[in-house]
Amino acid sequence: MSLYERLNEANNAAAGAGAAGTPGESAAAPAPAAQPAPGQQQANTVHELRLRVHGRLIDDLGSMLYDSDMPESELKKMVYSKLEQAVAEERVPLSAADKQRLIESIANDVLGYGPIDPLLHDESVTEIMVNGPNQVYVERSGKAGIAPVKFLDSDHLRRVIEKIVAQVGRRIDESSPLCDARLPDGSRVNAVIPPLAIGGPFLTIRKFSKDPLGIEDLIGFGTLTPASARFLQACIIGKLNVIISGGTGSGKTTTLNVMSSFIPEGERVITIEDAKELQLRQDHVLCMESRPPNVEGKGEVSIRDLVKNSLRMRPDRIVVGECRGGEALDMLQAMNTGHDGSLTTVHANTPRDAMTRIETLTMMAGYDLPIKAIREQMSSAVDLVIQIGRQRDGSRKISHITEVQGMEGEVIILQDIFLFDFAAGVGEDGKLVGTLQPTGVRPKFAEKLSDHGIKLGAEVFTPTRRAR
Q1: What is the pTM of this model?
Q2: For the chain, domain boundaries
């Protein structure tokens, strides 16, 4: 029995129960039930109608809704035709305008992404967090707040998730209740369904700008300064190996994308990611994406497999979206074997923590390597650590630009080249007024940059005095 038929049967049973009387004249008449207010009654009627029509449309079209071979215009025409027919067959007292609004609403659910569709088109929204069908949060300007939208029920939310997942050839079900995917515009999607999601399903969407941010945008946001931007550009052109470190949502991927834009044209760049997010504008770029196992638990291709394979593809540079496992060892070896200028990101709170994190990830590769050998690999492979974080005012700032100078005994020596001036305090608008300031120390790799014809003047490394 279809969902539409089950809903109708339930409605008919309820109507029959209400009409039936109690046999016998001596039976006491039931007390009249409290009637809802007229406005509430109409809202309930529209909600029930919406459920019936939506269910009927799903039953009628079925898998055609997810057929990638069907042109979008043809699918849209078919959906509207079915909706108009279904609404016309329903005998509910609604005006023509109300019926049209109902059709548009259901069509948005089916053709788009339901209630969150307007949020996806809202450029001020950077993240959408669905905590179940009745609670949706959005992030604007670094601050999270609840959105005035809801899903009809868990099944409605589940259908939206399955549509997103199907578009990129992924799957989500009880045997594989976690999934990373992406929307056609590049937005990153994470979905969790029951039994893992209690009260779920849960859906998190991190949006990315249609026009990728450039270095001028980061300077305008106060993420860095013109002097530090010039320094970072010199480091990328000079083929230094760079680690971008930060917490979740701190702007690591955005910073990686901006740093990658400095890579000169003509170099062969290979990007490796779990779900494609980077938007490099160079011509000679090859993008690879990992693959999860299939239903039988086979066919998985990990980030580590892709890093190993990329070494056979004659790369000039390798850009890994994020190191979170044994691929850290392969990345270090690539940096140490002629693939200078490679970039990646890690989750860490400070440059020192980033080095410790890479050390830990390297141990996950499964080799029993001595700690000193791992640290020597790290100190010779990594030249620079860029630390970025989300600050208390909601902004994202680069707090450290740190040089990896080498080893002293068994300790990796780090030297800060730029530091954010938190001592400047907070302005009247609640925003941090400090900027990223040079420490006055000239990096040891300045000679390496000179070998590439890149000369940085003393003004880049000279601190500016803060007005008192």
Answers
A1: 0.74
A2: 42-111, 114-208, 215-461
